[in-house]
Write a structure and sequence with these properties.
single chain, 494 residues, mainly alpha, transmembrane helix
Length: 494
């Protein structure tokens, strides 16, 4: 009890020091110069919010733009001996960006706190321009794999932008800023697949525009990357105009305002000890571990599904696929993304309030199982019936995933006291990133296995693929129940 009281005193003293620092403005500090944006009477920072929207969009589009043509790209790179092996290598390509991001997310966060938000955002845009362009120019599989990995490794945009968004607005407008980030991500889910689907292999689709010996005939997957590079160039011009929000106080200025002694009145060792105690408290909190497990399982499921769905759509009818073109896949993913954005803005808030957090988590989790098991049956349909049913199923599956993942975010915050939520979200983001990175590789390998075992007597081919996905969904359903996720997690922990 004495230790807890001492820790609380240290935290209170630290908060008082922070409040004092906020009241002082240093003329040479970039954060102080734009502190007026956080004033309670400040208006909505439209220019900054629109810039944040564009930055997230440009950084997110490369993640989803390759799914419509991923199967054909691996095929054209001649890395496989048989088309039945394409899924494995496609999974590696899909996972490489997320692996790079997972390995460097913490380092980019440290850099953003030390050097500023803008430098990290600028370097992230440059990485998109360089590595995404090189990805489109890849002439062999290993070059494509390396450039995707480097694109993820050098892109610290998301963490920096989330911090930036909270620093360019007051508490009244922060919710709007966060929704801009989510809406931009949703728009990237629409535009990204559309760019990949319509602009890949342009010499085959638009021979009158792109000649047989043109650059885009030699590099059939370069045009989508080039378009994203142009967008990144425009975003780079915009970001240079934005203010830096990180406070950088000169020691001499701090001495003049007599804050230097205040800042160091709390021993550094004590603050480190408090942080370590908070982390240990989180890891011993059953509700936090349960909420994080829900997020990890369903993030893994969602990434695995995305990889398998695109490969299944373009694979031949003979192996249980739909034999779609990149255009077809781009249209389906675009329609689902547009529907998701409308659902997220207009329907989900009211639906979540009506159902409650518990039912918002469990109902879509349970319904996802029979929905996934129906996918192999969809391959037996033809014509417009196939097109309509597939779009409806894809839209519903997208809705379910969004409901579960959104609810898991609320569960995570409910599982810890308010003063521990920053650390809790940081720990959770690191762990979830690992599961997201594993998903595409697992999905691609599973799909490749299914392609090679079409004649199995028990669960042949795609029955095993989607059956395994359903098993993961069942595990996800179980994770939302007691004793894995305590009932108290569905109520806010103050």
């Amino acid at each position: 009890m004495a230790d807890d009281a001492e820790d609380q005193q240290i935290l209170l003293q630290k908060n008082e020091n922070e409040d004092k620092k906020k009241e002082v403005r240093y003329p040479n500090c970039p954060g102080c110069k734009c502190a007026y944006l956080q004033h309670p009477d400040a208006g909505i920072p439209y220019k900054e919010f629109l810039s944040v929207f564009l930055l997230i969009f440009v950084a997110s589009t490369p993640v989803s733009s390759l799914y419509p043509f991923l199967y054909f790209m691996v095929q054209d790179l001649h890395i496989t001996k048989s088309d039945k092996e394409i899924g494995f290598y496609a999974g590696l390509l899909g996972a490489s960006l997320l692996v790079g991001r997972a390995l460097t997310a913490v380092q980019w966060g440290i850099a953003a706190d030390k050097y500023g938000r803008k430098p990290v955002m600028v370097l992230s845009l440059i990485s998109v321009m360089v590595f995404h362009t090189l990805f489109g120019l890849s002439k062999n599989f290993w070059m494509a794999l390396a450039t995707r990995f480097l694109l993820g490794s050098f892109n610290g945009m998301h963490g920096a932008v989330k911090a930036y968004t909270s620093e360019i607005s007051n508490q009244q407008h922060q919710a709007l800023g966060i929704s801009m980030v989510g809406t931009s991500w949703g728009l990237a889910l629409i535009i990204g697949p559309a760019l990949g689907g319509y602009l890949s292999q342009p010499a085959l689709k638009y021979p009158s525009v792109f000649g047989e010996g043109s650059l885009f005939a030699r590099y059939p997957y370069f045009l989508p990357s080039l378009c994203n590079t142009v967008l990144a160039s425009g975003a780079l011009c915009i970001i240079i105009q934005l203010p830096e929000t990180l406070h950088k106080h000169n020691i001499k200025e701090m001495e003049e305002t007599e804050l230097l002694s205040v800042e160091f009145s709390t021993p550094t060792e004590d603050l480190i000890a408090v942080k370590q105690n908070v982390t240990r408290s989180l890891l011993s909190r059953k509700s936090f571990i349960g909420a994080m497990a829900v997020s990890c399982i369903w993030s893994f499921h969602d990434m695995t599904y995305s990889e398998i769905f695109s490969l299944w759509c373009v694979s031949p009818k003979a192996t249980g696929g739909l034999n779609f073109t990149t255009d077809n896949v781009g249209k389906i993913l675009g329609i689902s993304g547009f529907a998701l954005m409308i659902f997220q803005i207009l329907i989900f808030p009211h639906l979540a309030n009506s159902l409650g957090l518990m039912m918002t988590t469990r109902v879509p989790a349970v319904l996802s199982v029979p929905l996934i098991l129906a996918y192999p049956l969809i391959a037996t349909l033809h014509g417009w019936v196939l097109w309509v049913i597939l779009n409806l199923v894809s839209i519903v599956k997208t809705f379910f995933s969004m409901m579960i993942l959104s609810a898991s975010f609320i569960l995570l915050n409910n599982s810890v006291p308010q003063d521990q939520r920053g650390v809790a979200n940081g720990v959770s983001m690191s762990v979830v990133s690992v599961f997201k990175a594993i998903g595409p590789a697992f999905g691609g390998s599973l799909f490749a296995w299914g392609q090679k075992h079409q004649d199995s007597h028990i669960l042949p081919g795609n029955d095993m693929v989607f059956g395994t996905l359903a098993i993961v969904a069942v595990i996800g359903c179980i994770s939302t129940l007691e004793p894995f996720l305590p009932q108290s997690t569905y109520e806010s922990c103050h």
